[in-house]
Amino acid sequence: MKIILLSGGSGQRLWPLSNGSRSKQFLKMMFNDNGVEESMIQRIWRQLQQAGLTESSYIATGKSQTDFIQSQIENIPPLIIEPDRRDTFPAIALAAAYLHSIEKLSLDEIVCVLPVDAYVEDSFLEAIKKFGHALTDSNASLALLGVKPTFPSDQYGYIVPAPNHESLCNTGTYDEVDFFIEKPDRDTAKKLIKQGAYWNCGVFAFKLGYLIQYLADNGIPCNFEELISQYSDIPKNSFDYEVVEKTNHIVVVPYKGKWRDLGTWNTITGIMNTDTVGKGVIDNNSINTHLINELDLPVVVAGISNSVIVASSDGILVADKAASGRIKELTKDFCQRPMYEEKHWGHYRVLDFHKLRNGAEVLTKKISIFQGKNLSYQLHLKRQEIWTITEGEGECILDGQLTHMKPGTVITIPAGTKHALKAITELQFIEVQMGSELSEADIIRFPMEWSEIETE
């Protein structure tokens, strides 16, 4: 069995920490057994390692997330990178084409699709190992993982088994599926649970040949490179609506352990083992309230209960936990550059951005580079940069000239000048950009190793 981890969403419901490039699965708000902070993607990857499944796993993601994945996961698996974000069906179609035309896997290979933000017990991964038997024994087209409900939620979809499902499965590994209901009211949810319904947790499996045939039948290329070139033409739809609802024979594999959909601040704070992250204090009169603060400023919370307060460079949120699911709707019209990003070489935070009277832009960043890592050899046509080293040591190459850098060193990089920077120790510096267009589009990179840059 091959596992496809879906890591494509932006997680706007967790604004202001999540944004277009820093998605919710990369936020470090959980702790492992050793008390070390970890993100959702780090947690599920650790669980896959413990279950012996990492060697057969892939991550389907977007271009903007690759640096985050490289910085948070060691020995990363193959990345199947979408040219642009288009929902779960195109992402899964691209992954299937990759397994078929690049990996050359058998059409009988079982493929399991798993959201990267699942918060589950280790037994969850033991349950998905049953997908192979369920698909083979039932001859079904799709197998879903169904969570045994613990209360009548109106926030989840439900998988309703066939009335005679017990006689259809002698092994107890799976149930035949009768129909689905998306987010029913609580009274309906109570009736569904009495019928033996499961929560739909968005985990499913199929034989590779089933999806490849589906693509062929719908005029969608099965070749990976061809599909990449036509990616914008694929229906921008969820896999549930595009495939699952059109499939006649589906089975569900039961899972009775813990599962949470970490899609809102209400659910995220429910699994945190502390009520305060960052600089701040919550008074004793504030009950069931959480504070997450990324700013270097103290935040004081007094007399506010059942709420979440989040402060970051991208904005400040004060919300009743029950209303936290509306964040995506309320922030849909926000349009600004990400103020914090993680890269494979380190990370940066935007300190200031403004425009001068003559139309020129000025952007100030605080940048950290990990020991031994380096920025790519590059140049900019529409801006100059000034670097001021504040901590650590490094080497700068400026149009072929090597300069040793230490705290207090100032380097000016005119527009059109090739430059690169390597951290000898962990390096921090302030970068001031000035020019007519301060964007990622104004970067010409030269793909060279550091040793090649030194000898250029």
TrEMBL record:
- Please provide, alphabetically and separated by semicolons, the GO molecular function terms listed in this UniProt record: mannose-1-phosphate guanylyltransferase (GTP) activity
Q: Which residues form the Nucleotidyl transferase domain?
A: 3-274
Gene3D superfamilies reported in the protein's UniProt record: Jelly Rolls, Spore Coat Polysaccharide Biosynthesis Protein SpsA, Chain A
CDD domains cross-referenced by the UniProt entry: cupin_PMI_typeII_C
The yes or no answer to whether the keyword Oxidoreductase is present is no
Q: Which GO terms describe its biological process?
A: GDP-mannose biosynthetic process; polysaccharide metabolic process
Keyword terms: Nucleotidyltransferase, Transferase
Q: Where is the Mannose-6-phosphate isomerase type II C-terminal domain?
A: 343-446
Task: Report the protein name in the record.
Answer: Mannose-1-phosphate guanylyltransferase
